[in-house]
Amino acid sequence: MNTEEAIKKLNDLELKEFAYGHAMGILSYDDETVAPRGSRIPRGKTMGVLSELSYKLSTGDEARAVLDGLKEHYDELSPEDKRRADIREKNMRELRAIPVEEYVAYTELLNDASNVWREAKAKSDYKLFEPYLGKIIETQKRFAGLVAPDMDPYDYCLDRFEEGLTQDKCQEFFGALRGRIVPLLERIEASGPIEDGFLKTHFPVSAQRELAKKLMEIEGLPEENCILGEVEHPFTTAFSKHDVRITTHYYENNFLSSMYSVIHEGGHALYDMHSEDRFVFTSLEGGVSMGAHESQSRFYENIIGRSYEFVSFIYPEIIRLCPKLASRSARELWRAANVARPSLIRTEADELTYPLHIMVRYEMEKAMMKGEVDTSELPDMWNRLYKEYLGIDVPDDKNGILQDSHWSGGAVGYFPSYALGSAYGAQLLAKMREEVNVAETVKKGELKPVNDWLEEHIWRYGCLYKPAELMERAFGGPFDPKYYTDYLERKFTEVYGL
Amino acid sequence: MNTEEAIKKLNDLELKEFAYGHAMGILSYDDETVAPRGSRIPRGKTMGVLSELSYKLSTGDEARAVLDGLKEHYDELSPEDKRRADIREKNMRELRAIPVEEYVAYTELLNDASNVWREAKAKSDYKLFEPYLGKIIETQKRFAGLVAPDMDPYDYCLDRFEEGLTQDKCQEFFGALRGRIVPLLERIEASGPIEDGFLKTHFPVSAQRELAKKLMEIEGLPEENCILGEVEHPFTTAFSKHDVRITTHYYENNFLSSMYSVIHEGGHALYDMHSEDRFVFTSLEGGVSMGAHESQSRFYENIIGRSYEFVSFIYPEIIRLCPKLASRSARELWRAANVARPSLIRTEADELTYPLHIMVRYEMEKAMMKGEVDTSELPDMWNRLYKEYLGIDVPDDKNGILQDSHWSGGAVGYFPSYALGSAYGAQLLAKMREEVNVAETVKKGELKPVNDWLEEHIWRYGCLYKPAELMERAFGGPFDPKYYTDYLERKFTEVYGL
User: Fold this and answer.
1) Tell me: the pLDDT tens digits for A131-161?
2) Hey, of A11, A28, A29, A30, which one would you mutate to test binding to chain B, going by the most B CBs within 10 A of its CB?
3) Assigned fold of A167-496
4) ipTM of the complex, rounded to two decimals
5) What DSSP element (H or E) covers B236?
């Protein structure tokens, strides 16, 4: 096989991989948005067949021949094709280490686990979910042992979502955060509370839908390529840059929930919609890691969306859609949208206490993966950590350990990327400000200069660079959590007038 | 391969076929219901990959070995497995007779033809669509010649949608219908018209949604396995008995349109939801033919849904949801819902004139497939037949030859099954009445005895029997269109008080 043939075969192979992934992705999206409950039976079967097919495609003789061809001509490859070869080699090593029947059984386990988790959450009964969580953790350990026997199993989990992330790095990062966030939170708690009761003002769903539409326009998400669905737990899914789905959930007595959900998911969507055209349907399309993804979504949600400039820009539209809110000023709304207060639910947490929710999950995952805690003890551990980190009592499983869908979907090791992404975002802001007057343009609701900067420095590269490298290129230097803690301190000092 | 091995391999093969069909079906459903326009680019790629995979699976060496194994042990097979072997042999013969490149070219032709048909209909310009229709007909003739060289090409088309149906049978059936419907229609036209202008009363979409939900409950469609989507042209799609999707379209000035659409699609759904469990994920699951399917959907829509008993049962709910209609009685509503009046559009036609619309299309298809008419003359032929059969003038192509999507999708030979299904339904009713007091139970809104009867005699069999055999078993004798014409005469005599 010469270089040209190897690349042609690689393109064919990646197109097929895309197609299988797309089909499975649509089945999941359908499940999350509209499917009747009974659909789990046929979907389980189809997912089983497709994941086996996908596994065989990516690990079979043809794929191996392609990889051999690429390695043989590695030096002649373009940097893009070198990266594709590297990604393929890493994935193949992972996939080949896991026997196909275990891989298929795991896919089916996750399908069941998601359904059971939903039921358990509705009934606030962890016991229902416990055996599934146990099996998921056991499988994660087993897969880690098979794929990376020399690696700590939880490090392996972290690396899956953020190439290169380890517990050592987490420990250092979270240590730095706690050291700044906890004293800041104490100063806030000692100061007077900000009035935010008016955020519960009844805001009709139809008006919230209109607001969501407007937000998508402002953020730069065209209807042609991005739709908004309604689900219980908002997420984003991309089927190539041409078709990205964001989702939200409306609460009539909490309009900010959906507003920030739309902006957050919109950040993921922007990243997914702007890989260079030459990467479409290849392994280089889309965001490179969860940390990189969250750096975009949390950048739009918090750094842009919760800034005084953005809130004062969108304020007239909010008042138009919900005139009862007119008794409050844009500044009051901005302060209320930034109240820092320990709470139960991660997705509803404010920007400052959010990383503490992540640290709870990080500690839990570490203990589970190290086998230091029995599944029956997990709710107690959860509740104890919430008391220790956030100072609050967890009333039930629904508002405690069952609140997130991640573990039921097998995403162990994902959570730290949320906090890491926030920190990346703050450092990106610092760099962006050297070229863009962010405050000025956001104040006018013109996000194009911000989007253009991120497209140039992050989005267009797709998966071309490893996440840490991508960020360092954009930062023009090494990652430093200080940008994030400085940002938080500056912002909350202003919000609370400390 | 022994019998047991052959059956095991057959099960594996059919499960895979199910899975590919399911994945492609979900992609289409997503397209029809929610997908953004840009999705056509990735969907085109994925459909291409999956349809090639599906073709190879069903015609490849493995499938051939399974079929050989089954044929070798044919006498030892159960009746169910004999039928599966027969269906497989027939399908494989069809697929293998057509060269793959012609099959792919035809798929592409249909894709283009659908887009052009949509544009031609919007512009009411048949000339745009003419070359595509010409090519479709030529391809149908060529495929018929390849697959079934000894058969009349149009008989081959009919048989594809209704196994065993021929032009001879159609001729006899349609002759019997015309002989009774035309004089009945003349008597109706001579009598005074029924007032139905009040059906245009504004009925809010939200209230229509509530009505639809109620109708699904009454019809016996549990949320667990059946959801209602919103689309431009209503359809039903089933992903096994566990997951069936019906769809509707709401018009605020025509609530009956959605009401009967829901009941009609619900009939398809009931059939799809009640194959015996042992048939699930095999080629025996689901409805056996379009005629059998329409016999169920049109039974629920017309025979049940437009009966006086049903209308008077649902009347209080209609009044509750749209109080403006309270000035009319249940009887007035029932008569208005059954106005018989020649019209231009098949999908909006009443129960009595509907078969005449079908006969026009049957005559057209027959002439096209026999090459008796040039594509340039087709609109004239259409308009002449509408004048002859329905006594009305067709003003333009949009309301004439371009109204239906079937031909642009390659569905030549499908239309007769609509009329045949209606006739099957009437004969099923006659038989059912020997055991069930249909009028009494429908009057109380209790459809369970009706559903149970149909489940026992039709639904549970899936594709086990050929359609004519299935019906004859249920009828306890041969098919006779007299049941249908008698039913129509009795009903419309009462509606019009003739």
Assistant:
1) 999 999 999 999 999 999 999 999 999 999 9
2) A30
3) Neurolysin; domain 3 (1.10.1370)
4) 0.92
5) strand B236-238
